[in-house]
């Protein structure tokens, strides 16, 4: 009996010690993470605190000249400059490498003008032949895909040549590319037009002497809402399982329709974590956009300086040519500098 009583006392004492240690740790944790009320009130009265409070309740904060200009990114940034967006996979990213590649991309854009184009635009690309000196190859086609990131960014052009579908993959920052022309600027309903391989040939046939289609000044990028029918009997992919808006599929068997419903994932559009893993954060986009805006200003200044240098070089060449002509002329025909008495 005494042994049982002593064991129960030890058990109670151990529990009390554990409870006391837990309470002490909780109090210390609260004291460590405690924020004074004065500091909280000071933050609420600051411009940043007012802006956050207004955004939380859906009311725009009052305008103040002292409010710092927050960095904003245009909504179409990922469509206009998809090559500048880094890889969204976290363990494949390297901040230093991204900045170095961005500098190389800016240097390349100083040498060649890379216009704005989208998937669905018709382009004409002129490239140098590495195996034949002083030879240029030009290919015209519709852009059906843009993929990869940074300096490895590439786009695919497709055209029908003599009844045969031809596709060429170009690296956007390849030094062999000498000129990129936008013959028709437009966008499509889908970000990937690989289904044109199974479409009728008239939907991706363009003449090589196609003239550029000019848009009125101030107009936006037109959206082509055409729906392409799939007429091929042997599809390269099961297009019914993809959420494609620019495709007209033929009547499918009932079993195929049930299989597509089974593989469909309508909940993916509400998956916030998937969007977070597959997209770049707004802060990173804003930082990249700031670098692009700075590059635009530097590029404009570089072009102005290059034009001035060309003018100076031409004037020097003209002056040197005149001097050479005067030196070659006989002395009798030279105009005398001294005045005759």
Automatic annotation (TrEMBL):
CC terms in the record's Gene Ontology section: mitochondrial large ribosomal subunit
Q: What molecular function terms (GO) are annotated for this protein?
A: structural constituent of ribosome
Q: Where is this region: Disordered?
A: 43-72, 313-341
Q: Where in the cell is it found?
A: Mitochondrion
Which InterPro entries does the record match to this protein? Ribosomal_bL19, Ribosomal_bL19_sf, Translation_prot_SH3-like_sf
User: What's a BP term from Gene Ontology annotated to this protein?
Assistant: translation
Which keywords are on file for this protein?
A: Mitochondrion, Ribonucleoprotein, Ribosomal protein, Transit peptide
Query: Low complexity compositional bias: what residue ranges?
Result: 49-59
Instruction: Please note every region of biased composition (Basic and acidic residues).
Output: 62-72
Source organism, top-level taxon? Eukaryota
Pfam families noted in UniProt? Ribosomal_L19
Q: Could you say which protein family the record assigns here?
A: Belongs to the bacterial ribosomal protein bL19 family.
PANTHER family cross-referenced by the UniProt entry = LARGE RIBOSOMAL SUBUNIT PROTEIN BL19M, RIBOSOMAL PROTEIN L19
Q: What's the protein called, per UniProt?
A: Large ribosomal subunit protein bL19m
